[in-house]
Specification:
heterodimer; A: mainly alpha; two-stranded antiparallel ribbon; B: 4 helices; about 85% helix
Chain lengths: ~250, ~190
């Protein structure tokens, strides 16, 4: 940092190739993003698969962690969708754990935040909405589209309401993906900006006097980002539950 | 909030120095579509593996452990409440037998007291009767002795009167003496 190199807050989101790979002419190189996806997978597997391997009646630390995660997601899911929502439990659990792990791993200095990539959050959002539509149609057939027709509303208003309902439904994946992406991106930019500011002020002669101020901010924002990491994973999960509930019970 | 403002205002003069170092002209990495295919590939791979691991291995296992624990705790609680109920029943039975035993003891004590007082009473009565009999016999004896003595007294008196009269030189008969004694006694 003493070289006076500019702080580039965007640098942390760059995809760097580690091993070049091609599949049918498509670039599927092993990158830093792949590394952190694999680390997230490894961490979750360590907690849930290895942690529960002992099947102890009195759980140890890892097993407690896995059971807490299990009950947390299960309670969230059944709280929103009721008992029949448990058929989606593996999906919702994997989703929560993956997003949460990716968010938290992104807090490690020098790491890469998988969920700060719009393509990843959009893929998750489309997966959720795709599941909702597929399950809704499979379970209720054309009744599923009753979701767009609020009951007990006069026809003239329906002409206005149905397009609004359709638009609001279609905007769900957009808002779902952008919320997570935006939060992760902005948080890390702010962190980097305050951190960079501290370093640059230290190297800017007399300005070094005020360098503790952005440092304090960086500390405060770090704490906030840990909260956001959990909160956004939770928000993503609970919205997934709400949308799945629509697939199970389409009536308004 | 005020702290944030102070920080921002304090660092404002340093901004030109910061901006000077920025080369610029970078593409915003998350919108670089050339990386999308690779990211999606690895995401499908890792998330697919995660889903398979969770749905096949981890979640059924954790679920069964939780269910087992719930059953164990429930069973233990049921056993505990059954044991407590049994203990309460036994305590009640013990209490009842204690009450019964106490009543028994009281009855036995009362009976013993009654019996002994009856026996004492009977003994007393018999002793009294015995004493009365003996008393009566003694009195009869005394009376008899007295009568006997009194009879003797009459004969002695007759003899004495006859002797006295003779000594005085008179003559007397038994009939006259008896008459005189009767008159003296009369």
């Amino acid at each position: 940092m003493a070289s006076g190199k500019a702080i580039e807050p965007m640098q942390q989101f760059e995809i760097k190739k580690i091993v070049e790979l091609q599949l049918f002419g498509t670039d599927i190189s092993f990158t830093n993003a792949s590394v952190w996806m694999l680390i997230a997978l490894a961490v979750i597997s360590l907690i849930t698969v290895y942690g529960s391997a002992q099947r102890a009646m009195v759980p140890g630390r890892l097993q407690s962690l896995s059971e807490m995660s299990y009950e947390f997601v299960a309670n969230t899911l059944t709280g929103v969708t009721g008992k029949e929502g448990m058929q989606f439990f593996p999906f919702v659990f994997s989703l929560f754990m993956f997003v949460f792990a990716a968010n938290l791993l992104g807090m490690i200095p020098g790491s890469f935040t998988v969920t700060s990539q719009i393509v990843v959050t959009a893929a998750f959002a489309l997966l959720v909405i795709g599941t909702v539509v597929a399950v809704g149609v499979a379970k209720h057939g054309s009744h599923f589209f009753g979701l767009f027709v609020p009951s007990g509303v006069p026809v003239p208003i329906l002409i206005l309401m149905v397009p609004i309902e359709i638009i609001s439904f279609l905007s769900r994946p957009v808002s779902l993906s952008l919320r997570l992406f935006g939060n992760m991106l902005a948080g890390h930019i702010v962190l980097k900006a305050f951190g960079g500011l501290t370093v640059m002020l230290l190297g800017a002669g007399a300005w070094a006097v005020i360098s503790p101020l952005p440092l304090l901010m960086a500390v405060a924002v770090t704490a906030l980002e840990f909260l956001v990491a959990f909160l956004q994973a939770y928000v993503f999960t609970i919205l997934t539950c709400v949308y799945l509930n629509d697939a199970l019970h389409p009536g308004h | 909030m005020r702290f944030v403002l102070v920080t921002l205002i304090a660092t404002l003069p340093a901004l030109p120095a910061l901006a000077a170092g920025d080369g610029g002209g970078h593409r915003f990495p998350p919108f670089d579509s050339s990386t999308y295919a690779g990211q999606l590939f690895w995401l499908v791979l890792t998330f697919g593996t995660l889903y398979a691991l969770m749905s096949r291995v981890a979640l059924p296992r954790i679920g069964s452990v939780l269910e087992e624990r719930r059953a164990t705790i429930e069973g233990a609680l049921r056993a505990a409440s059954a044991a407590q109920k049994e203990a309460e029943e036994q305590a009640a039975a013990l209490e009842a037998s204690l009450v019964k035993a106490r009543a028994n003891a009281q009855a036995i004590a009362t009976e013993a007291r009654d019996k002994s007082s009856r026996e004492i009473e009977a003994q007393r009565v018999s002793v009294e009767k015995d004493l009365a009999t003996k008393l009566a016999a003694a009195e009869a004896r005394i009376t008899e002795t007295k009568m006997q003595a009194m009879g003797n007294v009459e004969a002695i008196a007759k003899d004495a009167v006859a002797a006295i009269v003779e000594q005085l030189g008179g003559k007397t008969t038994d009939a006259a003496v008896a008459k005189a004694i009767n008159a003296a006694q009369g």
